[in-house]
Structure formats: structure tokens, C-alpha cells
Amino acid sequence: MPRVLTGLPAKHAAVALALPLLLLLLVGWMPPPISARPSPGPDYLRRGWLRLLAEGEGCAPCRLEECVTPRGCLAGRVHDACGCCWECANLEGQLCDLDPSAHFYGRCGEQLECRLDTGGDLSHGEVPEPLCACRSQRPLCGSDGRTYAQICRLQEAARARPDTNLTVAHPGPCEAEPQIMLQPYDIWNVTGQDVIFGCEVFAYPMASIEWRKDGLDIQLPGDDPHISVQGWTAEI
């Protein structure tokens, strides 16, 4: 039974009864002591919420005998979030964690690093994504006689075919005899109109190309302003 205070109006008596309840609510919502709060310093901010989530879950004691050996890791292997077992590293072009203390997307493999991809169209408010990128962009020649765009592509091929013992033969593209990849073909044209003939040739060093016009061989590149030659290195 609630106790009624005599000598007070009904309104004041209701207020007096609500005061103990209000005090109890205030006590229940008191903030934790300063020692129980996380430190707002740089280290706390640097770890990020993903790291705090992982710390909240915690890691079990490391038992290497229970680890499963990952297979088919084309970018190599890295330790898991707890630093115990091995797992496959992320390949070039896959999402990754910019914060080394985080472990959400995963870590990049050998010769790879996590960078923000700024090559896309960011004019429409798109946010650049963190992607694994190869540290080197120099082409090189493999021991199989094929040219690779960079060391990361060669290592992927070597791990995909471990029986070939693929290694780096030398920096730069492999020497290759000229091969006509796209042959020119006859074109019907109206007199006075422009016409385009295409001929794609793969070779390293660059092959010498000759065009025959009206029975005359024209060496390319030449000084004819109506003819252009574009050379590039093929990537595998």
C-alpha cells in the first residue's frame, strides 16, 4: 500500500511519491566510472571498431595440430586474425583491409599491398575501395618463354602450375618472333573517302612492318602523314 502524506494537497503528494522513483532511475543510468571507459587516445582510435569486435570475441588458445592446411593459394599464405593458422592471401584486385590491425576482407599476398582504388569514376560520389595491388608494374620474362605483366602475375602462374618450376628468366619482355595476330583484309571504299586498314603484329623487339601500295613497299613508321603505327607490349 502506498503511504499517503497528510497535510499536503493531492498534487504535492503525487510529486512527493514520484521523487524516489526518479532518484532510482537516475542511479540506474549513472555513467560508468572513468577507469571503466576505453581510452580516447590515438591507439584506441587507430584499432578501429572491427578490431574491437574481434577483441570482444577473443581468440582461443592456438593449437597448430587443429589447423587445416589451405590449398590452391595463388597469392601465397598469411596468418589468420589470431596469428595461429595459415589462410589463403587475397589476390590482386580483391578487397583488402587498409588498417593492418583489422581482419574483415583479409590481407594481400606476396608482392602485393592494399591501396585505395582511385582509377574509377569518382565524380558521382563513389567511394574508392581498398584493393590489393602489385608493388611492381614492370613486365618480365618467365622461364616458360612467356611475357608477364608483372611479378605478381608470374607468381600466380607458378603456384597454379607447381610442376613447371616457373621462375623469372630476365627483366623485360621475352624475345618473340613476329606473329601476325590480325591480318589485313580487302575493303571497298568510295573515291575520296578515308579508309582504315588494320594489321596487328606481336613481336619483341618491335617488328619491322612493310605495306605495299601500288607495287611499292612502304617501310613503317615512315613520313607519310596518312599512315600511323602504334606499338605496345602484350600482357598475359
Automatic annotation (TrEMBL):
Domain Ig-like: 178-236
Coiled-coil features, chain-numbered ranges: none
IGFBP N-terminal domain span: 55-135
Example GO BP: regulation of signal transduction
Domain Kazal-like: 126-176
GO cellular component: extracellular space
Record localization: Secreted
Principal place of residence: secreted
Secretion signal, residue range per the UniProt entry: 1-36
Pfam families: IGFBP, Kazal_2
Matches recorded under PROSITE patterns: IG_LIKE, IGFBP_N_2, KAZAL_2
Keyword Nucleotide-binding: no
Protein name as catalogued: Kazal-type serine protease inhibitor domain-containing protein 1
Protein species of origin: Marmota monax (Woodchuck)
